[in-house]
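Narrative of accomplishments. A recurring question from our advisory board has been how the design workflow behaves on a single, concrete structure rather than in aggregate. To address it, we present the structure tokens for one chain from the evaluation set, followed by the sequence designed for it. No filtering or post-editing was applied between the two.
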């Protein structure tokens, strides 16, 4: 049976890990150790069967990496993505993601996580983002998390929150005028719209473009 230090030396490079991954490294591992180590503050429980280390609580961007690891497949989108791109003025504390699994929420020491379910054919329009190296680990492996492209984050929002169906409601989003007129890729937006093929969404997008005179 591994000591905690032996366990940590193998699993820390992963950032966060599942019980299954722990048993890949230590086949005879007793999962009850995870509960004991968590109670002692040596581990952070992320959700059922998933854990991380308290040393990573201050690691830049790590909470977004956690979002994409503990509930897969998923990518960060909606309000969080719009905030990352500077498209909305509000700072977003909850990390919002899109998934093909059921809609759910988690909360742990790394943050609050919200996942909205979409059909598999809507699961596209994201990119990998490289996580900053882990300075706590020598030769830290490269790790990435998935972020919606700005056009897809906007479409995800309009699709999943159908109350944005009037010009007044769309104005309440307070989307950044400069981003909308200078940086938003309208060709990509139209391409993704066509790929989704949802008339109600098309109507909302038409109203959005009218509001921002695009």
């Amino acid at each position: 049976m591994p000591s905690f230090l032996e366990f940590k030396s193998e699993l820390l490079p992963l950032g966060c890990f599942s019980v299954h991954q722990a048993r890949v490294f230590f086949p005879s591992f007793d999962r009850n150790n995870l509960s004991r180590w968590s109670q002692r503050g040596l581990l952070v429980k992320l959700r059922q069967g998933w854990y991380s280390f308290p040393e990573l609580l201050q690691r830049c961007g790590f909470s977004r990496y956690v979002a994409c690891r503990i509930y897969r497949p998923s990518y960060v989108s909606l309000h969080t993505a719009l905030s990352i791109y500077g498209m909305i003025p509000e700072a977003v504390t909850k990390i919002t993601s899109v998934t093909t699994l059921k809609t759910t929420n988690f909360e742990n020491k790394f943050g609050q996580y919200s996942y909205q379910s979409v059909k598999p054919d809507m699961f596209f329009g994201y990119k990998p983002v490289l996580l900053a190296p882990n300075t706590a680990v020598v030769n830290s492996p490269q790790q990435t998390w998935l972020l919606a492209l700005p056009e897809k984050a906007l479409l995800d929002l309009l699709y999943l929150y159908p109350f944005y169906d009037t010009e007044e409601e769309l104005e309440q989003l307070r989307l950044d005028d400069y981003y909308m007129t200078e940086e938003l890729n309208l060709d990509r937006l139209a391409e993704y719209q066509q790929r989704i093929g949802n008339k109600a969404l098309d109507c909302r997008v038409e109203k959005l473009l009218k509001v921002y005179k695009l």
